[in-house]
Structures are given as C-alpha cells and as structure tokens.
C-alpha cells in the first residue's frame, strides 16, 4: 500500500521539477536581457511590470536632496502598441525626508536667516506613470509625475542655501540680529549726518549763489546808474542851455566824485564857452601847488636850444589863488640863469589866459585845444622860449 503512495508522490515531484525547469529560462532571460526573438516573446508574455532596478534610479534622479525612497510599489498598466517591447505601470514611491529643510526668511548682507520648513522623517507619497521601452541600448524609462507639486514649499537643506545661514530662533540668530540692528542704526545715523552736512553745504552754496547774484545785480544797477549819471552830465555840458551847463559843471566840481569832476573838467576845457572853460581852469589851479612848466626852443633863435638845456626844469609854485578875480601869487623860476631863478610872482587868470610876471621874466599862456596852456616865456637877456603847462 505504501508503494503506490510513493509512486504518486514521486510523480508529483517530477512534474513540479519539470515545471520549474521550463520556467527557469524565462526568468533568466528577463534578468539577463537576452536579445533573441524567442526570449523577447517569452519575456513579453512572462514579465508583467517594470523591474525595480530599472525604476528606482530614474525616480531617485528626480528627487531633490535629502529625500529618499523608502518603499516602491509598481502596478502594471496596459502598454500602448509599439514595435518594441514596452511596459507601463503606475508607480507609487513612499518618500522620507532624510534631514531638515528650510526656507529663506530674509537676507542681511552676507547673512541668510532661515525658517524651518520640514523636519527629518517627513513622509510623502509620490505617484507617477512609467513607460519602459526596451531598445538595443537597454531599457528607457519615461516618468510622468501625477503629483508634480508634491515637494513644493518644503524648502532645501541649509547647505544648499546661499550666504551664511542662520536659523531663526537660535541664540546665534538673536545675536546676529542685534548686531545687524546696531550696524543698521549706525549706518542710518551716518547717512543722516551725511545728508545733514550735504543739505547744510547745499544751503550755504545756495545762499552764496544768491548773495553773489544779488551783488552782481546791485553792481549792474550801480554801473547802469553810473553810466546814466555820466551820460546825463555829458549831455548837460554839451547842451545848448548855458545855465544848465554852468549848473552841471559847478555841481560836478563841487562834489566829491573824482570821475564826475574829471568828466566835467574835460568837457569844460574842450568847450568853446569861455565862461565854463574859465571855471574849469580856476578849479584846476586851486587844486595844485607846484606846476611844471615845459620849455621849448624856437626856430627863429638858434641859441634858444642852449638856453633851454641850461635853464633846467621850470616850476610855477602857487601860494595863493582867488577864484573870484583869478589873482595868483607864488614863485616862478628855473635854476640855470640868475635872471630866471625862482622869484615872487603876481599873476592873473582872465577867462582862458594866464599871465604871470616875476623879476625879469613874464609867462603868458592861453588854453589850447589839447587841454594844455600854451604860450611864451620872455626873460631879460634871454631869447624867447615856448612854454606849456599840461592840464592833467
């Protein structure tokens, strides 16, 4: 009775072994990737899903650090028609965060303050569809994530963030924040002081520019007023109204303005009005004490040249002058000859003629067109000489 039982048991064992042997070449072909047509057909019939060694590296390449795959589930899907062997699957990866991640809260120069985003050990489920195609170079896997925004907003490891990273809430962050606040306050104070100095300098420059503009405007107005004043004086002195000419001349001579006095003097000496010219000469003589007299030889007497050289400089010294009647007192003379040595004189200014008499000499001069008094010097025993006084 035992033998039949043993025979049936042996038959069952033999059938199982044959079945295993028949299936073994199919599994080996899948693993080794045999390229024969028969193996491909057998592989397409036997393999129902994408192998884990092919999927996992492709998924890990798309995951940011420090995420890692803890578990991988592959559900076969119908593959689209293709001349090459293809497999489709729905992939679900259980992801675990390997380290804490952070988000940038703020940047302060070289320091980056971080906010914690996620703690280590956080679990997420990543889902995608996969299409694997077998070509001559091996398997090519295309992944289409079904949850593309799954890891958005979960930050990055601190080592991947720029600058000197400091986590908010730590003593280091507090100390750095206080130091940065002090530095910012210092910079603000320096900027405020610099702006104050710049505003103050700008205000000074503006005030100086306004003062210069005001000074230039005042000077311009003064020049214009001066031009108008001189033009008015010249107009009155050159006018036909004799009374106006006299009044303008007397006002100019009586004032303390040298320019107006000089202008009036020039106009009066060049005018043909003997009264105005007489007033100008009286004013000129009254303002001088020593007047040089230039002497020149005459062509009629050849010896006059020697006399001029020997006489030396002649000077008319004015000790007293009366503007009322033109009476003149003083000295006249030159050191060269005794007859012409300085001696007391009496003289008179009559309109535009000046006559001076001294011991043995007489000087007679008349106003010329070039603001000079021209005439003759006659001395006893000396030839007649030409004399000139320049009205400077």
TrEMBL record:
Keyword Coiled coil: yes
Domain of life: Bacteria
Any coiled-coil regions, as ranges: 182-233
Keywords tagged on the record: Coiled coil, Signal
Residues annotated as signal peptide: 1-29
Name assigned to this protein: Uncharacterized protein
Protein species of origin: Azospirillum lipoferum
């Amino acid at each position: 009775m035992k033998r039949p039982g043993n025979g049936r048991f042996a038959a069952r064992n033999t059938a199982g072994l044959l079945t295993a042997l028949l299936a073994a070449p199919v599994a080996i072909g899948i693993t080794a990737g045999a390229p024969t047509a028969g193996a491909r057909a057998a592989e397409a019939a036997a393999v129902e899903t994408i192998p884990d060694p092919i999927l996992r590296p492709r998924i890990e390449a798309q995951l940011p650090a420090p995420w890692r795959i803890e578990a991988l589930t592959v559900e076969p899907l119908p593959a689209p028609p293709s001349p090459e062997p293809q497999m489709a699957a729905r992939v679900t990866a259980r992801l675990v965060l390997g380290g804490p991640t952070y988000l940038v809260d703020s940047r302060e120069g070289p320091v980056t303050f971080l906010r914690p985003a996620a703690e280590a050990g956080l679990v997420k489920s990543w889902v995608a569809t996969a299409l694997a195609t077998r070509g001559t170079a091996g398997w090519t896997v295309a992944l289409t994530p079904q949850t593309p925004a799954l890891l958005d907003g979960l930050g990055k490891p601190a080592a991947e963030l720029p600058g000197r990273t400091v986590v908010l809430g730590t003593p280091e962050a507090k100390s750095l924040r206080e130091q940065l606040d002090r530095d910012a306050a210092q910079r603000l104070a320096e900027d405020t002081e610099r702006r104050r100095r710049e505003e103050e300098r700008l205000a000074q420059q503006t005030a100086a520019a306004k003062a210069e503009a005001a000074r230039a405007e005042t000077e311009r107005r003064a020049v214009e007023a001066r031009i108008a004043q001189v033009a008015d004086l010249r107009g009155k002195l050159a006018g036909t109204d004799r009374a106006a000419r006299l009044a303008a001349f007397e006002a100019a001579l009586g004032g303390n303005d040298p320019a107006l006095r000089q202008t009036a003097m020039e106009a009066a000496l060049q005018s043909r009005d003997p009264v105005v010219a007489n007033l100008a000469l009286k004013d000129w003589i009254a303002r001088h004490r020593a007047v040089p007299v230039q002497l020149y030889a005459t062509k009629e007497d050849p010896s006059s040249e020697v006399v001029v050289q020997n006489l030396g400089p002649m000077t008319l010294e004015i000790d007293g002058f009366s503007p009322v009647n033109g009476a003149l007192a003083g000295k006249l003379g030159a050191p060269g000859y005794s007859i012409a040595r300085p001696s007391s004189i009496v003289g008179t200014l009559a309109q535009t003629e000046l006559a001076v008499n001294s011991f043995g000499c007489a000087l007679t001069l008349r106003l010329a067109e070039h603001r000079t008094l021209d005439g003759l010097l006659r001395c006893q025993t000396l030839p007649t000489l030409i004399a000139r006084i320049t009205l400077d």
